[in-house]
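Subject: sequence -> structure tokens, single chain

Hey, anyone have a minute? Need the predicted structure for the following. Not urgent.
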Amino acid sequence: MPAKRTTSFDVAKEAGVSRTTVSLVLNNVTSISINEATRQRVVEVARKLNYHPDASGRKLVSGKSSTIGLVLQQSEDQIFSDAFLLKVMLGIEHSVSQRGFHVLLKPDDPMHPQGYSQLVSENLVDGIILSGPRQDDEDIKRFSQEGFPIVLMGQLSDCALPFVDVNAVEGATTATRHLIQLGHRRIALITNASLQYTSAQQRRQGYLNALAEAGIRPDEELLQEGAYTSESGFNAMQKILQLPELPTGVFVASDVVAIGAMQAIHNAGKKIPEDIAVVGFDDIPMAEYLDPPLTTIRLPAYKLGWMAGEQLVSLMLDKPLEQPGILLGIDLVVRESTRGR
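Reply:
Had a minute. Here:
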């Protein structure tokens, strides 16, 4: 027979107090005065019996769930395809778990919205980290006005919410500038996502900035949208390969999307980088093992998640933020998918 699970009743009986007192002590409720000797006795008995209050009990007493929501505004297929997200999620989990919080993952596909605001309205989470904010998201504006703890991974214009992000404009400028410095003038762009996402807008802007500083006029037929997946990169690159005049280089604003683009180039009988040089963005683990190894922009994925977790916990504990907006730096990693012309 399995051992009987220790309950608050067992702790109360051995400590000689009520179950309510056990709950108040172990859930650190300070609004009700409890004798220090009694408090210490309850803690010692709970430790002796290896008793830990369950999550539902803590929530009933404190009104808090000890859970944060990680909202990813992508479809489930896109999330599972995005190798970059794994390190981000690990960073968040490690950051908040050391402060006693758990992470609830909530995909929120804009094409089939499930309404992540339900997490708040039903008191399922104490705060939210929202990855991939969109300019048309009305819930974000409402949360900002109501003061609910929320941190963006990404940025929105005219939004006072705290954020943690990478300098995507600078990264995209660096990636495109690298191609220009190698002698490329006709350079295509495949975004990481639809341009309704601010991350895609920023990476497109960085690409345009690099062209402008080199005196290169952008060609709209060279600009294609990706959708977080390798399949979208393959389809976008196929459209580019059908143009009468092909580009000699392409900046793909996501390594996962770049995988598909590189396959399309191979399928068309073209060589990388001899015919078309490719630069990615993210530096996912498999980037250096592609054929050829992918030149890319390295982002601090784990740190991005860690800092977002730190920001949110500070908000939930009513601690002032030293930096409401945090921009993390990037690095160019040059591999064999680019070379001079």
